[in-house]
Amino acid sequence: MGLRDKVVWITEADSETGRSIITRFAREGARFLLNSASGGAAIQEELALLDREGLAYATVNCTLLKRSETETMLAEAEAALGPLSVLIHNNNTVVRSSVEACTEEAFWESLDANAKTAFISTQAAGRSMREREQGKIIYISSIHADKPTGSAFAYSAAKGAVGMLAKEAALALGRHGISVNTVKVGPFEGDDELFRSDFSTLYNDYRYKVPNAVLGDGNDLAELALFLASDEARYLNGADIAFDGGFLLHYMNFKMKKPKPAP
User: Fold this and answer.
1) Does the pLDDT of residue 53 top 80, yes or no?
2) Rounded-to-integer distance, Cα 132 and Cα 62, Å
3) Of the N and C termini of the chain, which has fewer Cβ atoms inside 10 Å?
4) What CDD domains does the record tag this protein with (predicted)?
């Protein structure tokens, strides 16, 4: 989809989504700026793939919480790889907390990890992309920007902040040929434990609340991210894409598509 030699910055390369995106985008010949908290240790398989394919990449470990540090890191990466074409912000830190009991420290930890990193990386990427009047910014967010978790209040608040950041960025940066879109991811395998709640039943039988009873995964997400990063998505800007298989449309439990009992 036209990503040959384009530089793609993934802000959380170590995650399932990050690894899936690396693998899929490598098939399109992209170059990569990979922010890896493990210093590359968690993505050895993906880095080996890039080496085999002869694709350029840089692996960094940047907190994305300081503007000057992030801008310096990006400038150094661009000097080695070429100009940035795509930013994929996929930071996804869940800090369990309730409105009643959440500490200030937990609240700011979640805002920093999920929202401030989006703000800082968007500023850095936006400045770079404006010079060429083109670029793509993709936020991998969550349905919990809109739907309470019942277990991670500060996470929902942070993802809600990312949602409005995306809209403001789409409006401002869109004038410079930069598209900004958000993917709100619904339940993947294990999210019932990740968002386990003492009072919300949202994730009870969660896989069957997806109408087709089939959960998505990182590979599905990578395909959507690829489209959003491509020229084929040129007229898409400021969009919120619900990537949940219809999970939030669920209404009546007795209508769930559960496996039929064995005869």
Assistant:
1) yes
2) 25
3) C
4) SDR_c
Structure tokens at 239: 């969009």
Q: pLDDT tens across 193-215, in order?
A: 999 998 899 999 999 999 999 99
Using the structure block, give the residue that is written with the tokens 């700026």.
33
208 is catalytic: no
State the pLDDT at residue 260.
84
Query: Taking the domain 7-255, which CATH number applies?
Result: 3.40.50.720
pTM score above 0.70: yes
d(CA 37, CA 115): 17
Which is the catalytic residue, given 57, 139, 155, 203? Answer: 155
User: CA separation (Å) from 80 to 7, 56, 207?
Assistant: 11, 9, 44
Q: What single-letter amino acid sits at 224? A: L
Residue 1 pLDDT exceeds 70: no
Return the domain boundaries, the chain. Answer: 7-255
Q: Which of 82, 8, 2, 88 is nearest to 50 (CA)?
A: 8
Task: Compute the distance between CA of residue 68 and CA of residue 64 in angstroms, rounded to an integer.
Answer: 9
